[in-house]
């Protein structure tokens, strides 16, 4: 026995992995990646729907519930087991299930968000759009924990009995956050950020599962022989197995290639996500340094009891600090604080200070108001009835001259009628025929608009001209009010 085999055997004993339970574990993950399972798809749809609702409602409790329901951990662990055991059949079967699950979850989440009348990203959505290397570390440790639990027999509860791992690795929330971005019309930053977080978790779990299952010797000849005997009984009705048998892969269903190529494939995938995650971590570091420098500069600039509020915005190469203070701050002090931020961060800094009245200022102002009593000017006397009458009649004169149809009817007189219920104007005109209803309505609207009184009522009274007289007499110079 080589040193490698002795080390793996020792680790297997330390982890208390029962060799007799390995075929059952294999079949457990094989069943977890079964694409024709109704239970699996129901759990996936429920989980995606709950996660999407939790993200929209900004409810961490609802999002955690979706993590516990999600069945995605099963087929993802199966991919890692397939790589460790060099089983191409299990690998393709589990990869197909994972890809189909991702597509269905994205589509359902995008559909739910598209049907909503609002598409504003919440804090729960935005929290999953800026992953960094810390998220990769969490995913790796969570994947190792879940793989070890599975290698020891699933902890007595199977693939879905890993609540702690499911919450820690959070597969469904970032996937539904990406669906939120799709359903909202490709929101800037939401789709790529959430997709990167999901791919990070996916790659880390597969790598952790591969490492764990390989170290506990899930690729031993005894396990592979028993596994193939058990799987062949079910493979006959599996469409994936039938398709593979018609391809050139039929001769390699039990062989996924040499170990070094499988390791290299995982390393390449991890390196692909490592680059943007490292940039995200550096961005978090720079923002933390900038905020710390701004906080220290403000602490030296303004006493703690005089600082009402502080807002720090870090955008690109610029730091903007907005302060609300109750004490006077000199311009030279502000410039010195800005220079200290620039020296520590290398970014341009601007500090905007706005002063508000302190309690002492309010006391002084109150005393000044008490001692300086201002006598208000007496109100102007109300206008008498004659002035009101003159004003109203003068306002009537201009629209009468502009709108009255003198050619059809001679205006003899007009009266302003004031009552508790309404304000009305009565027109007395001389004409052989009465003014039609359409003309009366037009005149009413003109007077209402010109006088700014929409409830003004107009009445029209016709007086027949004397016999032998022309149809119109000259119009009067004024009117009466009663």
Strand order of the largest sheet: 6-5-4-7
Largest sheet composition: 4 strands, mixed
The count of strands amounts to 7
CA gyration radius, whole angstroms: 42 Å
Helix/strand order, N-terminal first: HHHHHHHHHHHHHHEEHEHHEEHEE
Q: Which overall shape is indicated by the principal axes computed on the Cα atoms? A: elongated
Give the fraction of residues assigned to helices. 55-70%
Q: What's the N-to-C terminus distance?
A: 124 Å
SSE class = alpha/beta
Tally of domains:
3
Which stretches are poorly predicted, pLDDT < 50 over at least 5 residues? 155-161, 471-478
Strand proportion, as a percent range, falls in 5-15%
Mean pLDDT equals 80
Number of helices: 18
Overview in brief:
This protein has 18 helices and 7 strands. It is an alpha/beta fold and 482 residues long.
Any overview of this molecule?
The model is unreliable at 155-161 and 471-478 (pLDDT under 50). It is elongated and about 135 Å long. The protein has 3 domains: 3-257; 285-371, K homology (KH) domain (GMP Synthetase, Chain A, domain 3); 385-481, GMP Synthetase, Chain A, domain 3 (2-Layer Sandwich). It has a 4-stranded mixed sheet with strand order 6-5-4-7, covered by helices on one side. The protein is of the alpha/beta class. It contains 18 helices and 7 strands. The protein has helices at 3-14, 22-32, 38-57, 60-69, 73-85, 88-115, 123-126, 133-151, 163-169, 172-183, 190-215, 221-235, 239-245, 259-301, 331-345, 359-371, 385-403, 437-451; strands at residues 307-315, 318-325, 348-355, 410-418, 423-430, 457-463, 480-481. 32% of the residues are buried. The longest helix is centred in the middle third of the chain and has 43 residues, at 259-301. Helix content is 60%, strand content 11%.
């Amino acid at each position: 026995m080589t040193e490698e085999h002795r080390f793996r055997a020792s680790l297997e004993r330390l982890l208390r992995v029962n060799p007799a339970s390995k075929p059952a574990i294999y079949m457990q993950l094989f069943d977890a990646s079964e694409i024709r399972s109704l239970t699996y798809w129901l759990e996936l749809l429920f989980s995606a729907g709950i996660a999407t609702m939790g993200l929209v409602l900004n409810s961490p409790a609802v999002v955690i519930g979706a993590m516990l329901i999600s069945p995605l951990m099963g087929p993802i662990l199966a991919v890692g087991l397939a790589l460790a055991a060099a089983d191409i059949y299990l690998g393709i079967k589990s990869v197909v299930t994972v890809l189909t699950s991702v597509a269905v979850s994205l589509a359902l989440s995008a559909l739910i968000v598209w049907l909503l009348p609002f598409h504003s990203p919440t804090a729960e959505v935005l929290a999953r759009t800026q992953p960094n290397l810390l998220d990769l570390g969490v995913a790796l440790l969570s994947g190792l924990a879940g793989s070890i639990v599975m290698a020891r027999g699933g902890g007595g509860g199977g693939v879905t009995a890993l609540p702690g791992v499911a919450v820690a690795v959070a597969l469904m929330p970032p996937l539904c956050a990406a669906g939120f971005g799709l359903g909202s019309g490709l929101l800037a930053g939401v789709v790529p950020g959430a997709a990167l977080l999901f791919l990070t978790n996916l790659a880390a779990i597969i790598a952790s599962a591969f490492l764990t299952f390989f170290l506990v010797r899930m690729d031993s000849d005894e396990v592979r022989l028993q596994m193939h005997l058990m799987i062949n009984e079910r493979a006959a009705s599996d469409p994936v197995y039938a398709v593979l048998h018609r391809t050139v892969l039929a001769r390699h269903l039990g062989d996924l290639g040499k170990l070094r190529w499988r390791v290299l494939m995982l390393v390449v995938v991890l390196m692909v996500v490592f680059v943007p995650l490292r940039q995200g971590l550096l961005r978090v570091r720079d923002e933390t340094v900038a905020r710390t420098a701004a906080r220290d500069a403000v602490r030296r600039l303004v006493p703690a009891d005089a600082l009402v509020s502080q807002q720090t915005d870090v955008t690109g190469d610029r730091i903007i600090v907005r302060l609300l203070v109750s004490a006077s701050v000199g311009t030279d002090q502000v410039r010195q604080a800005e220079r200290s931020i620039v020296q520590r961060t290398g970014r341009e800094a601007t500090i905007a200070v706005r002063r508000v009245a302190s309690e002492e200022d309010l006391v002084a102002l109150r005393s000044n108001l008490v001692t300086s009593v201002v006598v208000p000017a007496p109100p102007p006397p109300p206008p008498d009835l004659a002035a009101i009458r003159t004003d109203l009649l003068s306002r009537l004169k201009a629209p009468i001259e502009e709108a009255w149809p003198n050619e059809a009817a001679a205006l003899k007189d007009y009266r302003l009628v004031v009552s508790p219920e309404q304000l009305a104007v009565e027109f007395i005109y001389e004409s052989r025929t009465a003014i039609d209803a359409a003309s009366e309505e037009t005149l009413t609207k003109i007077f209402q608009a010109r006088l700014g009184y929409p409830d003004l009522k107009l009445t029209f009274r016709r007086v027949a001209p004397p016999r032998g007289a022309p149809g119109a007499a000259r119009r009067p110079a004024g009117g009466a009010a009663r």
